[in-house]
Fold this sequence. Notes:
Layout: H1 3-16, E1 29-34, E2 41-49, E3 58-67, H2 70-83, H3 88-102, H4 112-115, H5 128-153
Antiparallel strand pairs: 1-2, 2-3
Helix pairs in contact: 1-2, 2-5, 3-5
Amino acid sequence: MQMEKLYQEIILDHYRAPHHAGLRDPFDTEVHHVNPTCGDEVTLRVDLDPAGSGGESVVRDISYDAMGCSISQASTSVLTDLAIGRPLPEVLRTLDAFTEMVTSRGTIDGDEDVLGDGIAFAGVSKYPARVKCALLGWMAFKDAAVQATDQVAGHVTTGAVAAPGEQENRS
C-alpha cells in the first residue's frame, strides 16, 4: 500500500470513529473556533491538572464537538490521542511540530515518533486551503490551554491565541 493511501485511511478512520469526541465535564476552559473559509467549527474543552508530573501541568482531558470536513475532525481526534495524559509543555512541542509540518508546503515530512497518526496530515501541507482545516482543533486546544493556565495562575485572558480571522472565541 502506498504511503499516501495509508495516510488517507488513517484520516478516514479518525473521521468515521473520532476519539474522545463529545463534550465532557469537568473542564477548565471551553473555546469555540470557526474556520471562516470553509465553515468548519469546533467547540473544545480542556481539563488540566496543574500539579501534574514534576510540577508541570498535565492534560487530563480534551473533549470536543466538531462539525466540518474529514480533515478538521480527524485532526482533532488525533490531537486528543497525542495530548491526553501528557505534560502540557510536551503537548505544545508536539503542536509546534504538527504546525511546522502542515504549513511547510510539503518541505517537511514530520517525525512519526513525535506526531503519531498526525503524520497522516503531511500531504495536507501541499493544499493551502486545507491547512486551516487541519489546524482548527490544534489552535483551539492552544487557546484553551493558555486560558486554563492563566486561570490557574490567576490571570485574566483577554484575547485568543490563534491567527486573526480564523476563529470565534467564547469561554
